[in-house]
Amino acid sequence: MLLIAAVCVAAAPAGAQASSCCKPADLTTIKGIGYDYSPEMTALVGATVSVVEYPNLKARVDKNGSFALKVPKNRSTTIVIDAPGHSRMYSDTRVRTAGDPIVAFGVPTTALSVGIATVFNIPLNPSKNAPKDCLVVAFVVVKASLKFKTLAQAKAFGSIGVAGAKISLVKTGKGGGPFRGRPLYFGAAGNPDTSRTVTESGVGLFSGVPAGTYKVIATKAGSKFASATAVCKPERFVATIEAQL
Asked: Would you state the pLDDT for residue 60?
């Protein structure tokens, strides 16, 4: 199974910041893909993709699993995807350019998310089928995945997860420091495995993360990875990508 995602921040009000950013000259277009997190990797046709900080900027996933979304230039943004029957997923938060790799969302169904939460005692908000606290999922991936342009290319490549990496969270700013919770790593079949202490499929999940801004860091002897910024708030499912450099 291919394991990629990008996804992270809760809705901010569309105030003066939103209106001032959205003149055509102030925008650039980024591209991405949205698909069901399953071996079939079905395109999430019709799913809504939007900019959290500027909610009037939206796009939809087409029949090929692709989308093109306008975002403000030189401003840090978070991308979110909403698809019926699936968990709401947020990206990392950063400044984006037209030359960036595609924003890739591998989105689990609500039933799958609730099932994992139930088995591993992750508290939920039952009314929203969302985590009570913030969840951060890190995807540690090979460099080749950054060249994908379509869902078809991603499916043809196969698994891109890096095995043998450790993932950590470090809170930034005042009162910052390492998050003490241990990640739940996923096995080769894409299922959580409590016995693992490093990645096998490239995926690690942190639950119960307090509100704040975190650096998501992957380490492995002989390898270097990009870090990502996850902004956590309650009921947020944040997915980040740590790609090989």
From this structure: 98
